Amino acid sequence: MVKINLDGSFSHQGRTGGTEIIIRDQNGGVLGAAAICIDKANDPFQVEASAAVRALNFAKEMGFTKIMLEEDCLTVIRKLKEMEQDLSPIGTVIEEAKWRMSRLHECHVMHLLRSGNMVAHQLACYSLHLANDEYRLEDYSNVISAALHGDCNQQDYHAVLHVKLSKSVNGV
């Protein structure tokens, strides 16, 4: 199973959006990343829902059929989990995401706090300024590499902190 972190960013001024998708293996290794522009966007929820559709499509194109989709937009996560048809303004996008999810062997959706989705959030903001979409499998742009490096450092810090706290709690 692969984990997909995604996020969307919305520009009220330009009525545009940007999405970032990061696909990781069970060890946290990056398998692929994408920064995608959305030319015409009505609101942040539409961008977040579009990010889910694009993430599912990207993962399917890479051959993944067992997916854990993680996003920090609780509204979109709730809508993706609902069984009934979504008749909201973003309903067509939500229904497309549900259809794509149904075509996979296994797909779980999970809400993350923004603090757990910072790399995708930083890169979604970056994608607002792109002229063209970027799909990366190995050769990451400087911006993506820097964000991923920062995420690894943050994860290492939290792992060390967890070990230190565990030792102090257990009296070691």
From TrEMBL:
* All residue ranges annotated as the RNase H type-1 domain in the record: 5-124
Alphabetical list of InterPro entries matching this protein: RNase_H-like_dom_plant, RNase_H-like_EbsB-rel, RNaseH-like_sf, RNaseH_domain, RNaseH_sf
Q: Name one Pfam family in it.
A: RVT_3
SUPFAM superfamilies hit by this protein: Ribonuclease H-like
The protein's GO terms of the molecular function aspect are:
nucleic acid binding; RNA-DNA hybrid ribonuclease activity
Superkingdom, according to UniProt? Eukaryota
Matching entries from PANTHER family are given as: BNAC02G40300D PROTEIN, REVERSE TRANSCRIPTASE-LIKE PROTEIN
Name under which the protein is recorded: Uncharacterized protein LOC111315181
Source organism: Durio zibethinus (Durian)
Upper lineage is: Eukaryota, Viridiplantae, Streptophyta, Embryophyta, Tracheophyta
Q: Which gene encodes it?
A: LOC111315181
